Predict the structure of Porphobilinogen deaminase.
Amino acid sequence: MTTATPPLPPAHASGTPLRIGTRGSPLALAQAHETRLRLGMAHPHLAAPGAIEIVVIKTTGDRILDRTLAEAGGKGLFTKEIEDALLAGEIDLAVHSMKDVPTVLPQGLDITCLLPREDPRDAWFSRDGTTLLDLPAGAVVGTASLRRQAQVLARRPDLTVVPLRGNVQTRLRKLAEGEVDATLLAMAGLRRLDLADKVTAVLEAEMMLPAVAQGAIGIETRVADAVTNGLLAPLNCADTALRVTAERGVLTALDGSCRTPIAALARVVGEGVLELDAMALSPDGRTIVTTSRRFPASDALAAGLDAGAELKGRLPPGIFAVS
């Protein structure tokens, strides 16, 4: 007869700090600090100096800078080492950009809290203020996102898209130095870094449908850690959770990863009512399949899965094959 291993006790239960695991990029740290601030506002004892510790963990995605994430293996490259630390009890919670989180999580872990979502749209940057539609033929757009690449090429097949990796500041520096003529970044990250004033143009969803869960901060914990989960409960945003659930349903149905250009955006349009727009594309932007639906909040996951299944059924076979 075997007995179940008891769950690891939260370190803060014994008076030691509540430990937040995060990547070390400026944006990741800004998200961790936002989480710490919200925890302190919800629980005054956590606002005391030393009550919360931010633990920086370097991930595989941070180490790979010479190729796109699709080439390196897709989603999970920014979460694996942090999740390993969470499972080992070295941290109590992990703060992630939800667009980096795979749809299948390690056993025993879950996204137990979603902070209020920031602006989910994409931002356009060009050195001379030129818009996407006005760039000269042959201009170079830098992005590591297949989703952005596909949508750019769908509108402007005469442009050249090249990989551009690095954090927000690195990519803006490469733009300024003339490595590319234009690039795209998430508005949410720019707002969190107080860089929104540098944007050439904000791209509405009709022009560039965002990544699944873009702008949402997810907090991952051990399912059995009732103490930490209880502390996070007041921070959870119900509307964000519904929107992210629907969008990730699309991703789940399409078996999506960084190798697949998929976009989705859910909006709350009324009391208990959401709308969802979803899209799947070929990397070259030549094939585009879209769908939309309106649904009650209680059907968020089912609506996302249904939208993803519809897209999958309408896509040509092998469209996402990796050469």
